[in-house]
Amino acid sequence: MRIDFVFDGKGNKMMYRSIYCSSLPAIVEKLADTPAMKRLADISMHCGCDRADFATYHHIRGPYSRYLHSLGVAGIVWNFTGDLTQASAGLLHDIATPVFAHTIDFMNRDYMNQESTEEKTRAVIENSKEIMEILYQYDIDISEVADYHRYPVADNDTPMLSADRLEYTLGNAYLVYRRELTEIQEIYRDLFVAENEDKAPELCFCTLEAAKRFTKISLKNSFWFVSDEERFAMQYLADMMKTAIRSGDILPEDLMKTETEVIRKLEQGRSVSGLWRTYTKLRAVEACRQKREDRYCVRISAKKRYINPLVLIKDTPVRISEADRDIKREIEEFLEFSYDSWLSAEEDCTVVTR
Q: Other CB atoms closer than 10 Å to residue 18's CB: what's the count?
């Protein structure tokens, strides 16, 4: 079965790029059809930043949910490994993602690692009767799918290339940057699995041209993910959520519901309704050297996500930074990106109690 479109609970059509594999195995389709997985159709890949009014999000092709991303990761893993267990682990890797995703890591003061929300993956799987029945049917132990980090093609350490990083790079290329599917297909079809410097399997490009095109897209993502706008929005939203939980407008268990449900509570909450309205009107962020005392102002760091993929040079896999000076310089420029500035909204922003 070739999944070209999936639907959320409201019947909205969302595009799924079927370039990743010709078909998904039955176990992945069954797992994807469970309530615990379908919840991710209402969890955005953009961590709630797309709920502000930034220009970046004005012309995207369509919604990009954790559900679509998870299907994509499963498809990529299946395409390159043909392993049911690894593909299932790839599908389930984001199942514990809360509303607004990594924004909750910011709320947990884990903005540098952004891994605090992954801790509940096994528990969410165990608490899903439907998922446990499917795993039993296929004789797969929960330990084999609850931690996709054990499978290098699915996930590995930054800055290596994995199915997870590949999918959100190509997903944003299509939906946010509006790159053509033909270009994305050309990049994807250039990949194969090679042995990296640690003797582990890793996705590798056949040609330098495709590797450069991909890496430039990924670096565009990298700078965007740590931009003043994204960091400010995530911290503001994180502090708003903390305020909502302290006041009782949001319950801790609400974090594992859908964004539609939580936004409805934010809109109606006595302590945060005004903060939410302010957030949805946020268009620009102002950087300054000193903290402003007249408005909400933060200085915040963030995890620097980047990819330094392998590329085949004279039949030997090497990092693209070793093969191309321009790419090496751009990576170094990204790693030197400074978080020294204090950030506030360009127009007065309702103060959130931190």
A: 17
Identify which of 57, 60, 52, 43 has the alpha carbon closest to the alpha carbon of residue 100. Answer: 43
What's at 184, amino acid-wise?
I
Give yes or no for a contact between 284 and 346, defined as CB atoms under 8 angstroms apart. yes
Q: What DSSP assignment string belongs to 269-304?
A: -TTTHHHHHHHHT---EEEESS--SSS-EE------
Strand-pair partners of 281: none
N residues, the chain: 354
Per-residue pLDDT of the chain (354 residues; tens, 9 = 90+): 233 344 344 433 333 446 898 889 999 999 999 999 999 999 999 999 999 999 999 999 888 999 999 999 999 999 999 999 999 999 999 999 999 999 888 887 765 554 666 678 999 999 999 999 999 999 999 999 999 999 999 999 999 999 999 999 999 999 999 998 889 999 999 999 999 999 999 999 999 999 999 999 999 999 999 999 999 999 999 999 999 999 999 999 999 999 999 999 999 999 999 999 999 999 999 999 999 988 999 999 888 999 999 999 999 999 999 999 999 999 999 999 999 999 998 665 554 544
In angstroms and rounded to an integer, the radius of gyration of the C-alpha atoms of the chain is: 20
DSSP states of 189-247: HTEEEEE-TTS-EEEEES-HHHHHHHHHHHHHHHHHHTSHHHHHHHHHHHHHHHHHHHH
Burial 277-314 (b: 16+ CB within 10 A, else e): ebbeebeebbeeeeeeeeebbbebebebbbbbbbbbbe
